Structures are given as structure tokens and as C-alpha cells.
Amino acid sequence: MKDRILQAVPAGSVNINSVRKQALLDFQKAASIRFRSLELLNLSFIHRSASNEFPQKINNERLEFLGDAILGACTATLLYERLSEQPEGELAKIKSVVVSEDTLAGIARELQIDGLLILGKGEEMSGGRTKKAILADALEALIGAYYLDSGYKTVFEFISPYILEEIERVVANQHHRDYKTLLQETSQHLFRTYPTYTLLKRTGPDHERMFWVEVSVNGNTYGPGIGKNKKEAEQAAARLAYEAISQSVQPK
What we know:
Distance between the termini: 66 Å
Largest sheet: 3 strands, antiparallel
CATH superfamily of the largest domain: Ribonuclease III domain
Shape: flat
Strand content: 5-15%
Number of helices: 11
CATH architecture of the largest domain: Orthogonal Bundle
């Protein structure tokens, strides 16, 4: 185990000073986890934007790749065990929500990973600590690091409570709904066509950019949906379209 940990931590990794060490120890205590290697834990929080600031240009992307696979295995196991009556297709749909960027970013915030991120100056200035993609990736990197440090069983015990809580929300239909998928399924079912999205405009400075998107379905246009990025704006437009179409097809 020790050799595997050493191989996973690049030579010339970030020197952990006393302040950073205490922050990592506090994080472990709050998250109820314990790493053998603080260097590996620290590496999981280094975003690629900070790579040039450290020896060997290290970052958490390889750990993220590994953590994504480990998280998928943990989630699939929990779904298989807890939802024994559900067919494969339904399990896949639930899994896609449970391991979505929105969900993982929420768990990362709950663990206060945002405060431990090491970002490049540009990413820091542009609000990188609040970006869902960066938070979700850091959580996956943490999972990958913990797997290398302590093994699958320990990771499974750590992440299971968070995943089970999200599974319950999904089953109870209390999760964040993917309106783009819902709209696409509805459009195919009712009209045998696909929605098309159009970016209308971008407004605001770079650090407060807003996107405006409309969506067309079967000759009708809905929106605009507004969001901090194109993806959010498309989701907002899809929600307007989905709710309008769903209401129009309800029996009177």
C-alpha cells in the first residue's frame, strides 16, 4: 500500500507548510476521513490552472479520472443493492443524475472543498471556487486520491451516505431535473422531432457573464432562458418549453 501511495504522488509535489497542513487536517476531521498521505490529499485539490506554479506542473486531473471510475462503481453498487426491482434502464437514468455535475458540486460544497482548492491566479479572479465543474472535478479527484491512499472499501464507506441521500431524492423526484433531456424525450414522443437551441446574446463583463438562449420545438419558440453559462441558459429555456408543452397536452 505504501509503495502505491508513493507512486501516486509526483516527485517535487507542493511543499505543505504548517498553515496548509492544519487546513488539511481540519478538513479530514470535518469530513470524517483520514489520509495516510497528506501530499496525496493536497494533490486532489490542485486545479490545472495552477499547474505552472508548481514543480513538474502537477494537478488533480489524473486523480479525477480515477475517481470518476471509482465513484461510478460505488454508485452502481448502491443502486443495484437498494433498487432491486428497477430495470437496467431506470438504474442508468438515476445514476446519471446522482453523479451529475450539479450533484457532485453540491457534495463538494457541503464538504467545503471550495475553500481548499488551489487555483491559478486567473481562475481565482474569475470565481473558480464557485464553478460547478471545478468543484465536481475536485470531489472526483478526492475520491481517486482516497482510493489510492486507503482502498476501495474505505472510499465506499466515505461516499455512500452522500450517494444514498441523493438516490432517495431522485426516487422521490426531489432532485434537480434535467429539463433538456425531458424536453428531448417529450419532443420525440409527441412530434417526432428534436429541440433546437439558439444563443441570442451574451451580456455583462467576463466575470459576470450572462447567456440568453431560446429553444424551438415543432415550430414554436420558447424562452429566453437565462444563465451564467450556455448550459444553464439552455436548461432554463428547456424548462420553459417543457412546462408549456406539458400543460398544453394535459386533458381539459
